[in-house]
Amino acid sequence: MKSKILSILLFFVITLGVTAQEDYKDKKNLKETYVNLEKHQVFKLPVEVIPPGTKPRNIILMIADGMGTTQLFAAYTANGGALNITNLPYSGFSTTQSADNYITDSAAGGTALSSGQRTYNGAIAVDMDRKPITTILEIAERNGKATGLVSSSAITHATPASFIAHNISRNNYEEIAADFLKTDIDIFIGGGKSFFEERKDGRNLLDELREKNYLVLDSIRQAPGISKAPMAILTAQKHNPAYPERGNLVQEGTEKAIKVLSQQEKGYFLMVEGSQVDWGGHENNTAYIIKEMLDFDKAVGKALELAAVDGETLIIVTADHETGGMSIESGDFEKGKIRAMYTTTNHTGIMVPVFAVGPGAEHFTGVMKNTDIFYKMLNLFGFDK
Ligand code: MG
Ligand code: ZN
Question: What string of DSSP letters covers 151-168?
């Protein structure tokens, strides 16, 4: 009897441990009309005079996890008919299917974008045979570029993980955290601190980062004037809270990363993720989705303001998949009002939008596969796989 109770307890402890980063999937569904009262100004992009064929020195890949055209148009409506994203001069669509499923998850979706290979759902930059696949971040680093990751979830969560780690499962957060030490990433900003310091193997990765000369901080505001790499800013033990509770983390993280990376001589690769559009989608929560989309759009605005104007930086905005099967039932540009409906609390298989600006942006038009985005970035950087 005692051992039965113990084993049941153990089961719960293990299950809770594994799903600690997945709590966002259990919240109850809120189906409501959202009215946005805080419209933001969009950045006025100068008209580009970049000759076609120009190669970018820097690439910023911005991923809104779970953003389909509906999430985008809901945010566009809520913001009075204007967004930074929709101002980008080139656009297309990306198909999102994974190697083993019509409906991808964020691990396989992230891996397709990061490494140009479709794999099974749950895989972090490993192929169908569970062998590691080199990512654009690793290739950029190998070729002397500076690299960075910014995320509004834990930095060990599927999307950022698929750029820097290799693991058979997205749930192995501590192993994923350890993979950060195998690279020389110049700056990373996000939650997930506990996976670096409260580990089953007893390692303290924060100390190990310090030994590698990283400045390790809890918040971007601790380093106002500092733009020296390497830097690790771990802003939450697990995930960051939703917007606006977490503050302007994505925007400020984007700014900090660009400032640090642009000091580097040979250019950079930066991935910025707006993680929680997806979580709003899983909850069928219109307000959550739109607030996260608007927060992400402000980060895109920051990237445009700081990097698009240098004529050397390609900025790509896309998603890994759509979440919620969201549809707009009614909307009002003036009132910033949206009423949405949903067909699922999971991901869907539709194409997602791709937007681009800067040298090479002309390649991001028409319908492409998620994996094509990797190859376009690789070719534009002029690197071999
Ligand atoms: Mg994600
Ligand atoms: Zn999801």
Answer: EEEETTSHHHHHHH--BS
| Short-list 269, 243, 290, 258, CA closest to 72 | 290
Give domain status of residue 17, yes or no.
no
Which domain covers residue 276, as residue numbers?
33-381
Question: If you count DSSP H runs as helices and E runs as strands, how many of each does the chain have, helices first?
Answer: 12, 15
Residue 51 in any domain: the answer is yes
- Known catalytic membership, residue 169: no
User: pTM of the entire structure?
Assistant: 0.92
Q: How many independent structural domains does the chain possess?
A: 1
Note residues around ion ligand 1 (Cβ under 5 angstroms): 65, 106, 159, 275
Identify the pLDDT of residue 48.
65
CA of 240 from ligand 1 middle (Å) equals 12
**Average pLDDT along the chain:** 93
What is the C-alpha to C-alpha distance for residues 326 and 289, in angstroms, rounded to an integer? Answer: 10
pLDDT tens sequence across 194-222: 999 999 999 999 999 999 999 999 999 99
Distance 130 CA to ligand 1 centre (A): 21
Q: Which bound ligand lies closest to the C-alpha atom of 275?
A: 1
In a domain, 24, yes or no: no
Among the options 94, 98, 106, 194, which is catalytic?
Answer: 106
Q: How far is the CA of 359 from the centre of ligand 1 (A)?
A: 27
Q: Domain of 296: which CATH number?
A: 3.40.720.10
Question: In this structure, is residue 27 part of a structural domain?
Answer: no
pLDDT in tens, 54-108: 999 999 999 999 999 999 999 999 999 999 999 999 999 999 999 999 999 999 9
List residues, by chain if needed, whose CB lies under 5 Å from ion ligand 2: 278
277 alpha carbon to ligand 2 midpoint, in Å? 9
What distance in Å separates the CA atoms of residue 176 and residue 195, rounded to the nearest whole number?
Answer: 9
Predicted confidence (pLDDT) per residue in 20-38, tens digit: 456 665 555 556 789 999 8
